[in-house]
Design brief:
The structure is a homodimer.
Chain A: H1 3-20, H2 25-36, E1 41-42, H3 43-50, H4 54-66, E2 70-74, E3 81-85, H5 89-116, H6 124-152, H7 157-166
Antiparallel strand pairs in A: 1-3, 2-3
Chain A binds a DNA duplex through α4.
Chain lengths: 167, 167
DNA sequence: AATATCTTTCATTTTTTTTTGAAAGTTTAG
DNA sequence: CTAAACTTTCAAAAAAAAATGAAAGATATT
């Protein structure tokens, strides 16, 4: 395979994968493009390479920066802004899991706590509801804690984790 | 909060969460409904409770069954079909991660291997591409292995995992 | 073998999400 | 201060995804 084709295939695949994980296609594609770019690139270049509009590029770059996985870089003497992606994969994974925990898991936990705390009704239907949502709360809380612990292992957490299971 | 409201809030929240994880809203809602139902329920009831059409219910139930997290149950003497969800959370999580690995991670790995194996070009751009996609391949492969190992711990894998980190 | 009960399929419609592009906003330079 | 060089915003358009519902398929019952 040619380099051009490989790059394009990588960007397309990453984009498609993004959709399956609740991230929009363009956002994932921009991220992919920046991941394999040896140095920071401008918005103009991103638009050109992915064939997208200025507004689209601007909004998705902003979203990536909100996730903390893409950085703005200013080159001296240059008016335009350049962008780079977090390239360290351990760091990338840590940032993504922290952010998802903050945005999705924590709010979900709040709701689970709420709904599992209703006054215990009499019907078996209500009893089962309380029981099941309580279990769900405990489970998600535990999972969230495990994730937090794992990502505390600053460097090479994944390798270390794998070791623990190889023994 | 009233039981009715709690149940509705739970279903809504689960549905919204589903969207963020690349699962469609109705599918997640049906799953939520079945999770808290003390016993198997019919398609008619699902349609009624969630206010959705027959076709929608049918397709999403089928999808849930393809994921292996909802089962069809036949009641003796009954013509209609009834449905239940996997209620054991450890089992549920194991099924979901195995399925996502099969459907998404494995195919992604294949592409990563492909694109990282192009003939090493001369330009630094190509070198960086090969280097980065190779790292990504290694990382994802390792993550997939960890996930596989973790889910092998049949029972209480989450608790056991947490222990390992508490020490 | 005709009817009744229930489920699936899929072309069409509806809803939701994403993208566009031009106007407004911002920052630097002269 | 004004112009030039960029970036952001957001209403409208386009595209994608999901839902509907009626017809076609099953399967059991008489």
């Amino acid at each position: 395979m040619e380099y051009r084709d490989a790059k394009s295939k990588f960007i397309q695949t990453w984009g498609a994968l993004g959709s399956q994980w609740g991230i929009n296609k363009t956002m994932a594609q921009i991220h992919a493009l920046l991941m394999v770019a040896p140095e920071a690139i401008s918005m103009e270049e991103i638009m050109e390479e992915l064939q997208i509009s200025r507004g689209n590029a601007s909004m998705n770059l902003r979203a990536l920066m909100d996730w903390g996985i893409v950085y703005k870089e200013l080159k001296p003497g240059e008016r335009r802004e350049f962008f780079t992606a977090e390239k360290d994969l351990d760091e990338l994974a840590v940032k993504i899991s922290r952010e998802r925990s903050r945005r999705e898991i924590k709010p979900a936990l709040k709701v689970l706590k709420e709904v599992s705390s209703i006054e215990g009704g009499t019907s078996s239907e209500e009893k089962h509801f309380i029981d099941q949502t309580t279990k769900l709360y405990d489970f998600v809380l535990k999972a969230d804690n495990v994730l937090e612990k794992i990502t505390e292992y600053k460097d090479n957490w994944l390798t270390q984790l794998l070791m623990k299971f190889m023994k």
